[in-house]
Every structure is written in C-alpha cells, then in structure tokens.
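On clarity, I found the account of how folds are encoded harder to follow than it need be. Since the whole study asks how a given chain folds, the encoding of that fold should be made plain. For illustration, here is how one protein appears when written out as sequence plus structure tokens:
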Amino acid sequence: MNSENFSISEKIVSPSYIRQGSQARRSHEQLIRLLLEQGKCPEEGWSESTIELFLNELAVMDSNNFLGNCGVGEREGRVASSLVARRHYRLIHGIGRSGDIAAIQPKATGSSLLNKLTNSVVLDILKLSGVRSVTSCFVVPMATGMSLTLCFLTLRHKRPKGRYIIWPRIDQKSCFKAMITAGFEPVVVENILEGDELRTDMEAVERKVQELGAENILCIHSTTSCFAPRVPDRLEELATMSAKYDIPHVVNNAYGVQSSKCMHLIQQGARVGRIDAFVQSLDKNFMVPVGGAIIAGFNESFIQEISRMYPGRASASPSLDVLITLLTLGASGYRKLLAEQKEMYTYLAQELKRLAAAHGERLLHTPHNPISLAMSLDGLQTQSGKSVTQLGSMLFTRQVSGARVVALGNKQMVSGHMFSGFMSHSEAYPHPYLNAASAVGITRDDVTLCIKRLDKCLKSLRKESSFCVTNAICLYRFTLISYPMSV
C-alpha cells in the first residue's frame, strides 16, 4: 500500500481509520528505512510482522515473482513445491553470480539487497562483539571447515611457493581437513602444558618457520575457541611473528564471536601484528541452522579476493537465517545473550567444581578458556579406560548432549596423519576428563539437569566398580581356602 492507494481507500472506509492504518504502516517502513540508511543491526529487535513485511518487499523485487514474467532461461527461480517457496519467502535466486558470490544479480534485485544488508549487519555485530577495527566480511554458505579451505586457496595465488601451513595442534577434524582439502601440508606444532592448560609453544612455532623457510609457508593457522584444557592460541605473539616473517595469518574463530575474550585476542592481534582473515560459524554464534560461516578481515581488498574465489552462485539460506535472527534480537538482544553466556559460564564452573569435589575429582584450572570447562576423571581411569568412555555413553543415552569424555591413550588417523592422545590436544595429557561448554543460548536449567544426571552416572559407575572389586576379593579368598596349594 502506497500513499496513492491509501488516498483511494479513504473513499471506501472512514478516512480517520485509513489514516490510522497508514500511520501503523509507516512505523514499519521507518524501521526498514533506518536499516537501509545505516546498514547496522537495529538497537531493538523487530516484530515478526515487520520482518515478514520487509522480506515480502524484497521478494517482489526478484524476477521470479514479477507479475507476467516470462522466463526462458535454464535457471528462472522455478520451484515445484509451494511449501519450499514459502520456506524461503520466495527468495529463490540465491546470492552472487557465477564469478563472484558478492556480485549483484540483475534478475534478483531483492536477493542481492538481502545479501548486501546481511553482510553489513553482520559486520556491525562483529564490531559490537569486540573486533572494532574489522573492515570487511561476508556470509558464505559453507560451515567453518570449508570456509577455511576457501581462505587457503585464495592465499595460494598470493604465495605460489607456499606448501606448508603452521598449525598449533587442536584435535578437531574439520580444521585439519580444511588444510588437506586445499592441497597443503599441515605442520603440527604440539602444545605445551602450563599447569592444567595446553598453550601455544611459540618457540616451536618459530623453529618451524626458520626450518621450513618463510617463503615456503602459506600461512599460520591459529585457533581461538576450543575445548578445555586447550586454551586459545597466543594470538598477539603469533600475529607479531606473522608480521616479522611476512607470513599470512588465518584464525579459526569457530564459536568465538560469543566470547569477548576471543574477540579481544583478534582485535589485539590485528593491532600489534598481522591477521589476514578470521572465520566463524553462524550456527554456534547466532543460533541458526548449520550451513553458514562469516569470513572477515582487516583488509577489504583481500576479503573481496576470497569472495571472488567462491565458484558460482550460492544459497541465500544462511544469509536469510542470520538476518532474520539479528533483526529479531536487535543489538541489545544479542548483547544480552553474550552477558548470559558469561553468567552461565560462572554457574557451570561452580556446579562442576562442587560435583567434582564430591566424587574425588577436580575442575581443571583453565582460566584462559572462556567457553569450555574440563573436569578430571582420574578415579574412573582403568588400564583400558573403559569406565571413562562408558560415562560418555551413559550421558548420551540419558539425553545429555554435547558433553565430551576424553580417555587417555586414544589414537586416531586423520587424513593420513596419526594423532596420539587424540581429542586431548596433546600426545600425553596427564588426566582423563569430561568437557562441558557454556555456549550462547545455554540456560540455568540446562546446567542444573546436566549436573544432576552426571552425578547419577558417576555414582552408578563407582558403585559398579566397587562391586567388581568386592567380587574379586571374595573370589580370591574362596580360591585361597578351597585350593591352598594352587594359590
């Protein structure tokens, strides 16, 4: 309804009522105008009716929704199922063109506008979360691992001699496979144990740089968010080293946007040294379906190079999901979620510490990890470690998802590389342990229920272990009495 249609409507319904309806419509349009003018996440979240009005306005700008459109090409935004069309708000053309994921589509003005606005709003959120000097970003319809691969492939053109990627070890398969898939050789640098924490061995990293030669190294691939007892890499020192040897630096910031500490490390690293790109997941940081990531950096031209490296058009679903989510939350809503994440981290740490003490264990001291916590399981460790792994199975069958149990001595082959002590980020970590994470969106009820079920599982395992020991003693005594000579 435009002003002309409202004027005509006054001839049908009382003008005072029409004016009231027109004012209500203008309040929605005012919010949309501010978004278009500023390109920032609104301070207060929008209502669903405003968001749907906005998306419908975008959809009618795409050629597949033109009245009387005659499409004779091979890709005309045709959809067989009306359910699928509604699921995507009839934004069918996706984003980008065959040569650039950020390019404007002549046939899809609405989808192109959606893409540009999403990237702008996400950039604003990255700044709000702590990386104030970030200059460019784009949403890519791939999860973190493939997005890292895209970054490495872009660097290949800038460093044709680059063969190796220096990688402080983190036992997570996708980031390792990202390097292999891109055709490079990961150089795994073992972490060093400082107290309970596993930290970056800066001396070992520098030795590898000098041994391999800076010109033969594609980049340093560091990590922020990770499972305790590993903690975020020493980003400032790594960024300084990258600048010193003129080696690119790519940061895996998978679920670090929700952590002010992780984002501060990236900001400081870029300030004192070199960070070329940092990659983060959409689902882990913004509570949307899996399938998207944000590639961001401090050099706009390099981030544009990465976007141009993406072959073909791309799905608009991740961009649509995150834009809807951020418009719903608003900047204030997202800040509230970040504050709640910190509160829940403290509460989870308190509850795990209390539970650990009750079972003769302890909460491992990992103050540099702002999201993940670890509780020792020394009392469950046997020669085979079966009690430790059994705990993981028990928790899963009792609907405790996300808890991660790590036994000693695991070995795992990943893309031709053997990792000793796999899942513990170390060849010889001294304790088996259980991980739990205070990620964005976790509630107090989640923590309380997890602790209650974990307590029951630990009691059950210890009771079972005590029963086995008692039986073994009784069997030994029976054998001693019945067959003294054989004993």
